Amino acid sequence: MIDLLEGRFFKTFIAVMEEKSFNRASEKLGYVQSTVTNHIQLLERACGQKLFYRLSRGVKPTEAGLKLAKFAHQFVHLGLTLEEAMNESNQPKGTIHLSMHESFFVTRMASLIEKFRLDYPMVKFKLETGYHQDVIDDVSQYVVDFGIVPRDPGRDDVIFYPMLQEELIFIASHELTEKVETDGLNVLNHEAVISFGNSCLYHTHANMILEETGVETSGAIQYPSIEMIKKAVKCGIGFALIPKIAAEKELEQGDFQSLPLPTGIFSTHGIIVNKDRELNFPAQMFKTFVLDSYSNEIISEA
């Protein structure tokens, strides 16, 4: 099989996986569509199996395609790492591929990336966003260099590096907060919990705490971003559990308030790396930079 494989075939395969379309993959790679089709056909011939189902709108991977994805990412990563090692100098360059929750990127990571790139402008970043399990999958399947998750996944195939303890708070509109302070927590039985959805650990935390305090909410509402959740809370649509850092500005401005529910709710965020993945030089530097940036914070909050 090895004699039939070329690195560009794997790059094409990954592009088709990401774009879910031969046409969009060809545009992304700068190829004509027939080249993309030819690369996939050659891969299928080498593997002896069909890699994609052709649908009326786009394509989706077969079971064999999903298996190949892990090795395709490893192959491309190896090529990039080798190239960077051969060209290694005092000024690191290359691409760092990360995965994390949208709210963590907005509140924590964006500023760190900006600061890092001031010192190392030749380093580029590629970002995937998702929930806890999505990030774990990205790391375990070699899609990214490393991910950031809100708790230790406790898995043998990844290494967890504790980074910081993120405080979580319940927020609500002024009207709802006043009702709770006057009439008690039972008021929340008639309100909806707003979150990123069942896949988000913040949602799980919220349900656990509310159950412990005897609150049975009227339902749950799912929104895709931290900004939309905060706007919905301000409008009185429901209440939410979010990182305190994400609400500090609005709390100071009086847009909403913190609910009188149990305090001291923390989530220990950390970096996860596939134990079999060798990080390229820029990724190693950035991982150290991130951990060093929060070293004092996790000690002081632990």
Compile the SSE list and pairings.
Elements: H1 7-19, H2 22-29, H3 33-47, E1 52-54, E2 59-61, H4 63-86, E3 94-100, H5 102-119, E4 123-129, H6 132-140, E5 146-149, E6 158-172, H7 174-183, E7 192-195, H8 201-212, E8 219-222, H9 226-234, E9 239-243, H10 244-253, E10 257-258, E11 265-274, H11 281-293, H12 295-301
Parallel strand pairs: 3-4, 3-5, 7-8, 7-9
Antiparallel strand pairs: 1-2, 5-11, 6-9, 6-10, 6-11
Q: Could you give a short description of this structure?
A:
With about 300 residues, the chain is an alpha/beta fold. About 50% of the residues lie in helices and about 20% in strands.
Mean of residue pLDDT?
Answer: 88
The share of residues in helices is 40-55%
Number of helices: 12
- Given as residue ranges, the uncertain stretches (5+ residues, pLDDT < 50) are none
Categorize the overall geometry: globular
Task: Supply the CATH class of the largest domain.
Answer: Alpha Beta
Tell me the series of helices and strands, N- to C-terminal: HHHEEHEHEHEEHEHEHEHEEHH
User: So, CATH architecture of the largest domain?
Assistant: 3-Layer(aba) Sandwich
User: How many structural domains?
Assistant: 3
Q: Briefly note the structural class of the backbone.
A: alpha/beta
Mind telling me the CATH superfamily name of the largest domain?
A: Periplasmic binding protein-like II
Rg value: 23 Å
Looking at the structure, the CATH topology of the largest domain is D-Maltodextrin-Binding Protein, domain 2
| Number of DSSP-assigned strands | 11
Strand residues, percent:
15-25%
Report the span from N to C terminus. Answer: 52 Å
How can the largest sheet be summarized? 9 strands, mixed
